[in-house]
Design goal:
This protein has about 150 residues and is an alpha/beta fold. The protein contains 8 helices and 4 strands. The chain folds into 2 domains: about 90 residues, no CATH class; about 45 residues, no CATH class. It has a 4-stranded mixed beta sheet with strand order 1-2-3-4.
């Protein structure tokens, strides 16, 4: 029986720097996740993908239902090149526009910014962001609009 061990990004970082050494094993399955890719994207360094490849790591994937909601289950995918998986990840998130300004506006207001109009427009901005993400996929119906 094999055991599965999740590779925290700090561990992958230490391995990539040569500060720690792990090897592929017949008894251990090294595991990474979607969050690993988010960390790699933030770092801007592909060296982490080499570590995942060298360890023959597999991706832990959350199971979603037909409406893309998390079911509470996860599965281990068959081994595939982490670089290929990462390219798929980048492609999947490339069309997503994120508006991070609303959170910054609240923080700025706390520090004395004169941005009341920006802060009070947050509900409308939030609704527009949700609509722009869901509508192209036919997921922004009347019920969803009421929830938003």
């Amino acid at each position: 029986m094999k055991i599965h061990i999740y590779l925290d990004h700090n561990i992958v970082d230490d391995i990539s720097k040569g500060d720690l050494s792990l090897k592929p094993s017949d008894k251990v399955v090294w595991v990474y996740s979607h969050e690993s890719f988010a960390e790699i994207k933030r770092s801007g360094s592909p060296r982490f993908l080499d570590v995942l490849e060298d360890l023959k790591a597999v991706k832990l994937d959350l199971v979603l239902d037909s409406n893309f909601k998390i079911t509470g289950e996860a599965r281990f995918l068959e081994h595939r090149s982490p670089s290929e998986e990462y390219e798929s990840y980048l492609e999947a998130i490339s069309d997503t526009k994120q508006d991070d300004s609303s959170g910054l506006e609240f923080i700025a207001r706390l520090f004395g910014a004169d941005n009341k109009d920006k802060v009070t427009s947050h509900p409308q901005s939030f609704e527009e962001n949700i609509r722009s993400l869901l509508e192209p996929h036919g997921l922004y119906d009347g019920e969803t609009k009421l929830k938003v």
